[in-house]
Design a protein that fits this description.
The complex is a heterotrimer of chains A (309), B (301) and C (439). With 309 residues, chain A is mostly helical. Helices cover 72% and strands 0% of the residues of chain A. In chain A, α2 crosses α13. The chains are: A mainly alpha (309), B mainly alpha (301), C alpha/beta (439).
Chain lengths: 309, 301, 439
């Protein structure tokens, strides 16, 4: 770790000698890959391909059930499957809200942690807590916090004289917002730390020069900080979005999908492992991949354009 | 914003007129106060839930279900911890989690290290493929992989076994481990190896006596991430492990929540707290380095 | 394609992992389906060990189950039974994957309505050749029907749950309300009593209805509400009318018109609501009879309680029930031995012990009689056993898509209705439309 800490940007030096030896070393490079390649091919690439293909079959549970290729039948069926699209919509609301709120909150926190405030060391340590907890435990903990009668949230609201009888996880009105807050909480440290690392990579002299020119805090933020952070922002929001869309454990424990929180992953899990419709569930997985890919494509292309413009 | 820039700004400000200076001072002070308020709010938001969990772990069932909750328990007693380990079977689950996480870590590091070295040092076509796979593996939803995996493990006799879980975790942790290790290897100057080679040391000796020691901290960090990843994982365990005696800690705790009848809340809190200890310790150790190097490398790498 | 060939395809594919060309083989034979299963009879001299996945979760029942197994093991050295613990919360998912993975336990504990679908998928062995006449005769035909498809019996019914009203007698006294007695308690009387017991800060009634479907379907029989008309093959048509909706309507009225039922409890589990009942927040508490065990276990000193007479609608105190069951997977290598154990488990004194531990009513009449003698004079037992005499097998148990309909449509619809976000008409519509979607 020290190596990286002291030389965070050390690139691979492609020295001439190495290039000269390349032919001889090619095969040894492949050899070094073999131990990693076998499990990857056997337990990642192969099942993935099979999973994609399963989405085009009628595979389901049942003793001696016969599986056959059904083409796009599953997708025609999905078009009509109202609950799936409902869940899909919930998934989009969830993933966008969590990613955006997480980003804004984390950016604020990262700026604060980078502002030479007293006690920022302790603050930084505390800000890491959610990262250090397993999702299942985070969910258990927040169930305690959000309990309508003996939870800390309602207790705190009551102490402030606010309404203290909100049934956070037990009503369609509040369950999704409450779950989103927990999602934001759980993912903030990664986003904050990444943005902080990005902030520390921005040259101080740029800020100083702008200040001498009389630029306000806001002007400097928009014209120096944000452009300097852009690659990091794109990377972390992309990763967060994918992770959030695929999230499972948190909501499984918090609400199990009740009261309007049925995320697409929970829905597909149920379709496969509760109702035994493996083919249909795989088809849902395929649809989800395509939609995520479309969003990412649009987003990344817009960002690339913004950068060249 | 650094101290030196503040000083320079102060010097700059002296040249302006008095009124403007006073106004700018006040507004800067207000700005500072607002910053502290915001920081405190963030700290409370991110830190309070854990504090709440810690105190809950020491409370009795009556205290936990009192309609008038107090933050601190009336008495700090360890009954819940004893109960969680003995009665709720969390001890066995923790042992399972430990075995799985250790085995996963060991295998991941052993197979990722040579591949990471090759990725960092050689320009081969595999490099592009590997990077592509690492990115791709992030996009695909687990559901697409778990159904075929679940069906594959049966003929291999690995379904519902800790061994099967280890296989899945190894594959699942590999992308990140490869990514991290590649960065660490790349950070070691290639000249070191070449110098060693010129002194006549064999390639193996160069790797063992020059590269490995420098890679030590990186290996530790990668191992810890792999360990924590497996320790925390829930989804695969939920699908693959059916025997109560083989359940992992998160699985066990998740079932605890949903269990019929009255839940022993104190034990649940105590068990949850115990399950966090490995990762809390890990993050306490590495937190200083997290901002300085680890991620800046990953972000820019 | 036989399963044998399918498995071969799988093996070959794994060997040929690197070649993505295996796709074609995968498409046709994705390694689904288990081995070909024929009813397995075991060599009488062979020693076997069977796994018994039990869902017992209360201490007394866990102990009672273990005692039965120990007694069996002592007498049957050639057939040892190992108890493994399962959980009611995920038993369905667990069985789907266990069956698919070919590792279902030899003896499966669950409830009838959840097992029907598995039986229709061919996963369960027919127990009828193995059950003794005593066992068959001790259980009523109606209950046997709820665990049979045609002539095949896919499960043995053990104990049954009824919904009862628990009452904090001290709270009745303090409010000057008489504790209802008699043969039955009408829903109107329940409403009235709850109103009388509601004062500021406390409600007359708490009811943990987080999982509302089963209680509503079962209690609907009291209003002649049967929901389904089931054909022999498990297909069914739904009819949601007045009888079906009477109970949700009454609960809704108590929560929102009378404000005598705490609406928060409607989103919680029975166990979650219990502390409020024990703490005096709710004078009455509706739930499965099994909760009596937990009240007895965790009531504070001096807490006085009883069970009110069975709830009755326009059709009397009839209630549906989905009995707990024991089944054997068709793929088990020792169907005969596993069935023999189930037959033993079904003996009257065993079922009486299980019933006593869980405060549930044995499906066997002889066991019920035994339990009646054993529990004479204990709080609540007479009333609970009385409610057991009007238990019926509700038609929904035999509808094979019931579990999916319950999860995806009925439960969310009932929850929204109970939360006051949809009207009774919308509820009716969603229950019926949901069934069409599932079927």
């Amino acid at each position: 770790m020290t190596a990286v800490a002291t030389r965070p940007e050390a690139p691979t030096p492609p020295t001439p000698q190495r290039r000269g030896r390349r032919g001889r070393q090619d095969w040894s490079a492949y050899l070094l890959f073999v131990p990693a390649m076998i499990p990857i091919l056997a337990f990642s690439v192969y099942p993935l391909v099979q999973g994609i293909l399963l989405g085009f079959t009628d595979s389901q549970s049942g003793l001696n059930a016969v599986t056959s290729f059904t083409g796009i039948d599953n997708y025609v069926r999905l078009l009509d499957y109202g609950l799936f699209w409902q869940s899909f919509g919930i998934g989009l609301i969830w993933a966008f809200s969590v990613t955006i709120i997480q980003f804004v909150a984390s950016l604020c926190l990262a700026l604060l942690l980078n502002a030479n405030l007293w006690g920022q060391g302790i603050a930084r340590t505390i800000a890491l807590i959610p990262w250090a907890m397993p999702p299942v435990i985070i969910a258990i903990m927040w169930r305690f916090m959000l309990h309508p009668t003996y939870g800390a949230i309602n207790g705190g609201l009551g102490a402030l004289g606010l309404p203290d009888d909100t049934n956070w996880l037990g009503t369609a009105q509040w369950a999704l917002p409450a779950v989103i807050v927990v999602g934001v909480w759980a993912g903030m440290p990664q986003t904050t730390i990444t943005l902080l690392a990005g902030l520390q990579g921005i040259d101080d002299q740029l800020h100083e020069a702008a200040q001498i020119d009389g630029a306000s805090v806001w002007q400097r933020f928009w014209n120096i900080t944000i452009p300097g952070l852009r690659p990091v922002i794109v990377a972390i929001t992309t990763l967060d979005f994918i992770n959030n869309f695929n999230s499972f454990a948190l909501v499984y424990v918090l609400t199990a999908g009740a009261y309007g929180t049925m995320l697409p992953m929970l829905f597909a899990y149920n379709e496969a492992f509760r109702y035994g419709n493996f083919g249909l569930a795989s088809a849902m997985g395929n649809v989800i991949v395509v939609v995520i890919a479309v969003f990412l494509f649009v987003y990344l292309r817009a960002q690339a354009k913004a950068r060249t413009a | 914003m650094s101290i030196s820039s503040d000083l320079r700004r102060d010097a700059d400000v002296v040249e302006r007129d008095d009124r403007a200076r006073r106004r700018s001072r006040t507004s800067r002070r207000i700005w500072r106060v607002l910053q502290y308020v915001a920081l405190v709010l963030f700290v409370v938001f991110l830190g309070f839930p854990l504090l709440f969990l810690v105190t809950a772990a020491f409370k009795t069932q009556q205290e936990l279900q009192s309609p008038d909750p107090q933050l601190l328990p009336a008495q700090w007693n360890l009954d819940n911890f004893v109960g969680a380990i003995e009665r709720a079977g969390l001890g066995q689950a923790a042992l399972n989690s430990l075995v799985v996480a250790l085995a996963t870590t060991l295998i991941v590091v052993l197979i990722a290290l040579p591949a990471a070295y090759a990725l960092a040092r050689f320009q081969t076509r595999l490099r592009g493929l590997a990077t592509g796979w690492i990115l791709l593996s992030q996009v695909f939803p687990f559901i697409l992989i778990i159904i075929p995996l679940f069906l594959m493990l049966r003929p291999l006799g690995l379904n519902n076994t800790l061994g099967g879980l280890v296989v899945v975790y190894v594959v699942w942790s590999l992308p990140f481990a490869l990514w991290m290790l590649r960065g660490y290897v790349a950070a070691i100057p290639g000249e070191l190896e070449e110098a060693g080679a010129m002194d006549g040391a064999s390639r193996f000796r160069v790797l063992r006596s020059i590269i490995m020691p420098l890679l030590g901290p990186g290996l530790v960090a990668t191992s810890l991430f792999a360990f924590i990843g497996s320790w925390n994982e829930f989804f695969f365990a939920l699908v693959l492990i059916k025997d109560e005696a083989l359940q992992t800690l998160p699985q066990r705790l998740a079932l605890f929540v949903g269990s019929e009848g009255q839940v022993a809340l104190g034990q649940l809190a105590a068990g949850s707290l115990l399950a966090c200890i490995p990762s809390l310790v890990f993050f306490a150790i590495i937190q200083r380095r997290l901002t300085s190097g680890l991620l800046s490398g990953a972000v820019k790498g | 394609m036989t399963s044998h060939r399918k498995r071969d395809t799988m093996h070959r594919s794994i060997r040929a992992i690197a070649g993505i060309g295996a796709c074609a083989a995968l498409l046709t034979g994705c390694a689904f389906g288990g081995g070909g299963a024929t009813e397995a009879t075991t060599d009488p001299d062979e020693d076997v060990t069977l796994t018994f996945q039990s869902l017992a979760f209360q201490d007394a029942t866990i102990q009672a189950t273990q005692d039965i197994v120990d007694a069996w093991n002592a007498d049957h050295p050639e057939t040892q039974v190992d108890v493994v613990q399962g959980s009611w919360d995920n038993v369905h998912d667990q069985l789907v994957t266990q069956f698919q993975g070919g590792e279902a336990p030899d003896i499966i504990h669950n409830e009838a309505s959840d097992m029907t679908g598995f039986a229709q998928d061919g996963y369960l062995a027919d127990l009828s050749p193995y059950l003794s006449d005593d066992v068959v005769d001790s259980v009523g035909q109606g209950i046997w029907d709820s665990v049979s498809i045609g002539d095949e019996v896919f499960a043995a019914p053990t104990v049954m749950q009824s919904y009862v009203v628990f009452a904090n007698t001290a709270a009745f006294e303090a409010a000057g309300v008489d504790v209802p007695t008699g043969d039955e308690l009408s829903w109107d009387a329940l409403r009235e009593t709850a109103q009388q017991l509601t004062a500021d800060g406390s409600f007359g009634l708490g009811w943990g209805l987080r999982q509302p479907t089963a209680p509503f379907m079962n209690l609907a029989l009291g209003f002649d509400g049967t929901f389904f008309d089931v054909a022999d093959d498990g297909s069914a048509t739904i009819d949601v009318g007045e009888g079906e909706l009477a109970v949700p309507e009454a609960v809704h009225a108590m929560a929102y018109e009378d404000a005598s039922l705490d609406p928060v409890t409607l989103t919680q589990s029975g166990g979650d609501v219990l502390p409020g009942f024990l703490g005096g927040q709710y004078a009455m508490y509706v739930g499965g009879s099994y909760l009596a065990q937990q009240i007895a276990d965790s009531a504070p000193e001096g807490f006085e309680w009883t069970v009110l007479p069975p709830l009755a609608g326009s059709n009397g105190s009839a209630q549906g029930t989905s009995p707990q069951t024991l089944s054997v997977p068709a793929e088990s290598e020792h169907v005969d031995r596993a069935a023999a154990f189930i037959d033993y488990f079904m003996q009257a004194d065993n079922l009486a012990a299980i019933g006593e531990g869980d405060c549930l009513i044995p499906a066997s009449e002889t066991a019920r009689a035994e339990l009646e003698t054993a529990t004479e004079g204990q709080t609540g037992w007479a009333e609970m056993l009385a409610s057991g005499s009007t238990l019926e097998a509700a038609p929904f148990q035999l509808a094979s898509d019931y579990p999916q309909w319950k999860d995806q449509y009925a439960t969310p619809a009932f929850q929204e209705y109970l939360a006051g976000t949809i009207t009774l008409e919308e509820l009716q519509q969603r229950l019926a439309d949901g069934w069409d979607q599932v079927g």
